[in-house]
């Protein structure tokens, strides 16, 4: 299917967003989600499927106690985090819990506070000690059973005060130090059943608190880290990723059209990194570090870049750190003097040098490549070089300086529009590429961004595209 047809198909796609987070611990067996849903219904609030799934973790039980001392809900903007919080706060106030709520931007918790206060006055006025306090900086509601809800500033001083049972931190990505968290956590010490609740979309390398949470997501049994985000291998315009990161799709009227308009605006404006963070919920670096912005990559798009070509071919092999992933790319010169590049094979599970070299053999039986290039500094280079010796190929290990030159040459191919590509894996990884300066004189290499996204396919394309310009009469491994 060509890209135009795929775009037309996606424009008509009305599939709902993903109910379950892409990253999460196993679903809890016991929770109070049914009671929360009944309360929400009585308040006139209708949960989306993903909100019910998040509520299942927020109310998960381990006997008489909450199963998770910390719960992080990471989802793209405008998906209904407020709608999830409001009935949860009301439920906990009715059970006598003390709640502290903060965010870098006071507008967010104040919006939640106003909705909670309105519902309490409307449905539970007899249980209020007095009418809620609405003055800026003094927002507070108290119930006769001891329930207490207040908004505080996201500072060390703001966190100090009465003991809490719940601490809610909104827009966690904006916290660039842990001062507030360090001060807020001790307010939970006296609670018999405490919980910290974090809400955010994806962050940057400056999002130190959010990044620290994400790092211990798989190792801390007391943390439920729930992330609705686009899988890193999906292109920015792939609707599968949009559904993964925007679980309210299909439930909110006009949401798909709004996302499509946002994508076009960021694509044309060279700010896809913002779209990645805000709407795909994928980690991104500061915009000034991103290597390829604006129309440069889009100008390289050509339908079926290797169609009709019979060589000569070059193969490039990119390997992610720790052999988590690997990609083989193939490149050839086109009659229009552009260099066409496509992903030949990608490996995502149980990757080994033997598996990758077997795929190289498979390609060689059909199209004897004139160059097979791999980064000599990568962990798998020695395996590829041994394989080349056994196959009778001549080779020269690619020196570090040659890899720098290849990187800069690849950049020039892209900026000059001399690369021809049409591959969703490359589309997904190219926004993750940042420049890593090497020594003096403006030399640099590519590096992956803080988003944890891989760039093995980009490295493979780089090696293949620049190698095809340096072929010799005999096959080589570089």
Task: Describe the fold and architecture.
The chain is α/β, with parallel strands linked by helices and 478 residues long. The chain folds into 2 domains: 12-227, 3-Layer(aba) Sandwich (Rossmann fold), CATH 3.40.50; 298-477, Nucleotidyltransferase, domain 5, CATH 3.30.420.240. It is built from 16 helices and 18 strands. The strands form 4 sheets. A 7-stranded mixed β-sheet has the order 5-6-4-7-8-3-9, with helices on both faces. Strands 14-18-13-10-11-12-15 form a 7-stranded mixed β-sheet. Strand 7 (166-170), helix 7 and strand 8 (195-200) form a beta-alpha-beta unit. The model is unreliable at 1-12 (pLDDT under 50).
Relevant terms:
478 residues, alpha/beta, Rossmann fold, Nucleotidyltransferase, domain 5, 2 domains, 7-stranded mixed β-sheet, 18 strands, 35% helix
